[in-house]
C-alpha cells in the first residue's frame, strides 16, 4: 500500500512538472488611437489584477477592426456605435453582435477660421465623415445647429442627398474620418469625431458645437456571435464599466467623454 502511494505521489510530481500553470485569460481587443485606447489600457491594468490580460491593437481605418474580429484576429473591438455596426453587418455579412455599451464620444464641429457658427458666410465649405453612419450623425448635428434641414424621419440613414434646405448654401464634402482634422486648414469647418480631434490636438471645449449627453451614439463592445457569452469577455466588460473607470474617464478627459454607466 505504501509503495502504491509512493508511486502515485511520484507520478503526480512528474505531472506537475509537465502540466503548464493555468494561464491568465487573454483578450485581444481592437480600437482606435487616442482616448478609446487610453481608457482600455486603464481598464486593462485593473483587469490584470483579476487574471485577465488585455492585448490592445490600435487601428486608423474604421473598416479594419470588424474585419479583424470576423477573421478571429481579435476577440472583441470597441470603436463603433450600433448604427455603424449594423451597417457593416448588413453590407459585409459579419456574424458580429454587441454585448454592452461603452462610452459616448461626442462628435463636434471644429474650425480654424471662425469662432462661432454665426460667422459662417454663404457658400462656406464643410466636411463630414464618409462612412454612412457617422456621416448621418454629422448631418444631424448640422441640423441641430440650424445650418440645414433634413427630410423628416430620415434619422440615422441621412445622406447629403436628404438635405431639403441649405440656407447658407454650404458646400459639404465627405472625407475619411481620420483626415477630418487636416481638412480644417482648407475648409471653413468640419465634423470631427472626438478621438481624432484629441489626437490632432483640438480642444473640444473650443468646438463650435458638440453633441450633448443625450446622444444615443455610444460605443459598443462587439464580438463574434458565438462568443457573446464568453466568461472572460463578460468579466472584462464588467471591469470596464466600473466606478473606477468612470472616475478615470471623467477626470482624464475633463468631462468631454461621457460614460453610459
Defining key terms:
261 residues, 14 strands, disordered N terminus, single chain, five-stranded mixed sheet, globular, alpha/beta, 9 helices
Largest sheet: 5 strands, mixed
Order of helices and strands: HEHEHEHEEEEHEEEHEHEEHHE
- The N- to C-terminal Cα distance equals 61 Å
Quickly give the structural class.
alpha/beta
**Biggest sheet: strands side by side, in what order?**
2-1-3-13-4
What does the radius of gyration come to? 23 Å
Instruction: Determine the mean pLDDT.
Output: 90
Instruction: Give the helix tally.
Output: 9
Helix content: 25-40%
Task: Report the sheet-strand fraction.
Answer: 15-25%
Unreliable spans: 1-23
* Overall strand count: 14
Principal-axis shape equals globular
Amino acid at each position: 500500500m505504501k509503495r502504491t502511494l509512493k508511486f502515485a505521489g511520484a507520478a503526480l510530481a512528474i505531472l506537475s512538472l509537465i502540466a503548464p500553470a493555468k494561464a491568465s485569460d487573454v483578450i485581444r481587443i481592437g480600437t482606435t488611437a487616442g482616448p478609446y485606447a487610453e481608457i482600455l489600457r486603464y481598464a486593462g491594468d485593473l483587469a490584470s489584477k483579476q487574471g485577465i490580460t488585455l492585448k490592445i491593437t490600435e487601428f486608423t481605418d474604421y473598416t479594419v477592426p470588424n474585419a479583424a474580429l470576423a477573421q478571429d484576429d481579435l476577440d472583441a473591438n470597441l470603436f463603433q456605435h450600433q448604427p455603424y455596426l449594423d451597417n457593416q453587418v448588413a453590407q459585409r455579412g459579419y456574424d458580429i453582435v454587441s454585448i454592452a455599451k461603452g462610452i459616448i464620444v461626442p462628435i463636434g464641429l471644429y474650425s480654424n477660421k471662425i469662432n462661432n457658427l454665426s460667422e459662417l458666410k454663404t457658400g462656406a465649405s464643410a466636411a463630414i465623415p464618409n462612412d454612412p453612419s457617422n456621416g448621418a450623425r454629422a448631418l444631424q448635428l448640422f441640423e441641430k445647429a440650424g445650418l440645414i434641414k433634413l427630410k423628416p424621419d430620415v434619422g440615422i440613414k441621412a445622406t447629403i442627398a436628404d438635405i431639403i434646405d441649405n440656407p447658407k448654401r454650404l458646400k459639404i464634402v465627405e472625407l475619411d474620418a481620420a483626415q477630418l482634422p487636416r481638412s480644417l486648414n482648407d475648409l471653413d469647418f468640419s465634423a470631427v469625431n472626438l478621438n481624432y480631434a484629441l489626437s490632432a490636438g483640438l480642444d473640444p471645449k473650443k468646438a463650435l458645437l458638440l453633441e450633448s449627453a443625450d446622444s444615443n451614439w455610444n460605443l459598443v463592445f462587439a464580438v463574434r456571435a458565438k462568443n457573446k457569452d464568453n466568461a472572460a469577455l463578460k468579466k472584462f466588460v464588467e471591469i470596464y464599466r466600473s466606478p473606477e473607470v468612470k472616475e478615470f474617464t471623467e477626470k482624464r478627459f475633463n468631462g468631454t467623454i461621457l460614460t453610459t454607466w
